[in-house]
Amino acid sequence: QVQLVQSGGGFVQAGGSLRLSCSASQQTFRSYAVGWFRQAPGKEYEFVAGIGWGNGRTYYADSVKGRFTISRDNSKNTVNLQMNSLNPDDTAVYYCAADFLKNTPAQLTDAYDYWGQGTQVTVSS
Question: CA 122, CA 114: separation in Å to the nearest integer?
Fold first, then answer.
């Protein structure tokens, strides 16, 4: 079982940057694909970015391509989401989620077994 703890987030003006981190309690975190999802008020969960297990490939929603970067530091059991050029449409609660031994991170929430606690990202206009 993996416990995920998120850090980062906060309040930023449009055009600014934030960095989210997702840290796991297990040294085997490299064996999990990790996805980032977000949920804006009144909306469903939206897939944002994902990375496959190990040195996995990265995947991005069209809405964040060129602005967000997902990466992992397996030595620290951590996956990061660097968010640049933020705009108010990025305002949401962001969650990381882990899926065991998946080369391709799923874009549906029900594929994931483990979830972080969520962190608020608010972007002002």
Answer: 24
Phi-psi group of 15: left, alpha or beta (phi > 0 → left; psi -120 to 50 → alpha; rest → beta): left
Amino acid found at 26:
Q
What is d(CA 118, CA 125) in angstroms, rounded to the nearest whole number?
23
pLDDT at residue 52 greater than cutoff 90: yes
Q: Which of 72, 64, 53, 73 is nearest to 92 (CA)?
A: 64
pLDDT in tens, 63-96: 999 999 999 998 899 999 999 999 999 999 999 9
How many residues are there in the chain?
A: 125
The CA-atom distances, in angstroms, between 42 and each of 39, 64, 88, 102, 125 are: 8, 20, 15, 30, 20
